[in-house]
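Recall that a protein's primary structure is simply its ordered list of amino acids. Everything else, from secondary elements to tertiary packing, is in principle encoded there. The following example makes that idea concrete.
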Amino acid sequence: MPDHARIPLVIDTDTAADDCFALLVGLLDPRADLRAITMVAGNVGFDQQVHNALLTIGLSGRLGEVPVHLGAREPLEREWISAAEVHGDGVGGLRRPDNGRDADDEPAVDALVRLARVHRGSLTIVAIGPLTNIALAVQRDPEFAANVGRIVIMGGSINGRGNITAAAEYNIYVDPEAADEVFRAGFADIVVVPWDPTTLHDAAFDRAAIARIASVDTVLSRFFVRANQVTFDFDVAAGLAGSTHPDSLSALVALDPTIVTRSSRYRVDVETVSELTRGATVFDWKPGVETNATGVEAVDGNAFLDYMIDLLGRTPTGQIAPVALTN
C-alpha cells in the first residue's frame, strides 16, 4: 500500500493484555502508519507498561522503528488506581531480552502536539487508556484539538454499566477530569468504543474463540494466549462470556470503520463531582442536543475475531524475540 494511503496513527496506551494486541494492530496492519506509541498511567505499574509496549514491538519485528514516548505517570488530580487484578502484569510473566532498546527522550505530550501539527487534519489517535496525556496536550497547545483529524476513544458506557464501579468504566474512572476536558475540547471527530454495549456484546472471546487463536500456533498467537490468560480468567469469574477486547477493537475501528454496524451521534459528558457515580459517562441522545461524539453501538463481532486470527497468524519479519516466550 502506498504511504499516502496509510493512516498516520498514534496509540496512547496503558499497555497490558488487550492493549498489547491493539499495538499489534497498529504495528502489523498495512493500513496503519504508526508514528508513535505514547504511555499513560493506567492498567499496571508505569514501568511495567513500558516494558510491555517494548516487548510487543519486539515480537512484531519492528523494534527501533516505532518510538515509545513516556507520558503522565498519574492522573490530573487524583491518585492512580491499578487494574492489576484484571491483567496481572499484562503479559503473562514474559520478560523481553536485554536488547538495549528503551523509550524515546521526547515526552509523550510533546510528541502528540508535534505529530498533530505535522499531520494536521489527518492524524488519528487511538486512546485506549485514561485520557490524561490527551488532556495535557489540549492544555499545552490551543490548536491541538483542531489539528487532530480523529480520535478513537476506548472508554465509557452508553447504557450506564461500569466495570470498575456500577456506573463507571475503568479508563474514564481513573481520570474523569481528563476525560471531561477531552470531550469538551472541540475535537472535530471523536469516536467512542464503549464498554457497554459494544465490548460486552461484540468483543468478548469465549473459550472456543481462544482455542481457535491457540490453534494458529505462531509466536504472536502464543503471546496472545499467554498474555490474555489472567484477563480471561478474571472476566469469566465475573460472569462474562469470555475475555474482552475493546482496545484491539478500537485500533481496528480506527483503520476500518466498516467493522461498525451501528452507531449514533451523542453529547458525551463525564461525571467528576459525585463519588457515587465518579467517571460515569452520560451519552445524551435527545433530538436537538449539541453532539460531540459518535458512539459505536455494535460491530461485526465475527469479522473482528476473524481479523484477529489472521493478524496473529502472521510471521513478522525483522527482529523477533522468541526467548521472551520461554521465560
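Residues 22 and 248 are 4 Å apart (CA to CA). The chain has 13 helices and eleven strands.
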